[in-house]
Specification:
Strand order of the largest sheet: 2-1-3-4
Number of helices: 8
Order of helices and strands: EHEHEHEHHHHH
Mean pLDDT: 94
Distance between the termini: 11 Å
Helix content: 40-55%
Structural class: alpha/beta
Shape: globular
Radius of gyration: 17 Å
CATH topology of the largest domain: Rossmann fold
């Protein structure tokens, strides 16, 4: 168990909940977390620096900042990860001595679920195959929705299931197939070592 109070800063509440679940799986259920969901990418970028200061005053001593690597709506290509990371790093630069990990899932964290055959079968009710390179899947959330459509033509999957899927997720396999997840897990494990 970690004695840290880990801040989770993400674009929406379901992402915060998924990260809390993963933190508890890696560090133990007694690990304390505090979250802030910005409700949008632009708000997260704009308010990150101020939110870090507030959460530091509230006792947070480790930070996980989550931002999807979105696609450019004009050409459907992924935005520049380095540019996004640099922007987020700059927002963090005025707070010294904090331990942080900027987690940028390629496109969205739902890609991580495609790494695990059991999670894919669960969503697809026995159908579907895991992907050896989930970060290459275009619109992984939408693909989970399609996979979950049953005979009644209604999708079973929604992002409200993400915490449940994070509980089922094979963390080792996900770390092998998803670089952003491996880096997150490594960061969390470093917190437990002090």
């Amino acid at each position: 168990m970690s004695s840290n109070l880990i801040a989770i800063i993400a674009e929406d509440e379901t992402d915060c909940d998924v990260f809390r679940q993963i933190i508890h799986r890696v560090l133990g259920t007694n690990t304390r977390t505090k979250s802030w969901a910005s409700k949008s990418s632009s708000t997260l970028k704009r308010k990150l620096s101020a939110k870090l200061k507030v959460m530091t005053r509230e006792g947070c001593d480790a930070f996980i900042i989550v931002h999807d690597l979105d696609r450019n709506p004009k050409n459907n290509s992924l935005n520049d990860e380095k540019q996004l990371r640099d922007h987020l790093e700059l927002s963090c630069s005025n707070i010294n001595g904090i331990r942080k990990y900027i987690c940028i899932p390629i496109e969205e964290l739902e890609a991580w679920f495609w790494s695990d055959p059991e999670v894919v079968k669960y969503v697809g009710r026995g159908k579907g195959k895991a992907h050896p390179n989930p970060h290459l899947i275009i619109k992984p959330k939408e693909e989970l929705i399609k996979l979950s459509i049953g005979e009644n033509r209604k999708p079973r999957y929604s992002t409200n299931m993400n915490v449940e899927l994070a509980e089922k997720l094979n963390l080792e396999l996900c770390a092998t197939r998803c670089p952003s997840f491996k880096e997150l897990r490594d960061f969390l494990q470093s917190l437990s070592r002090g």
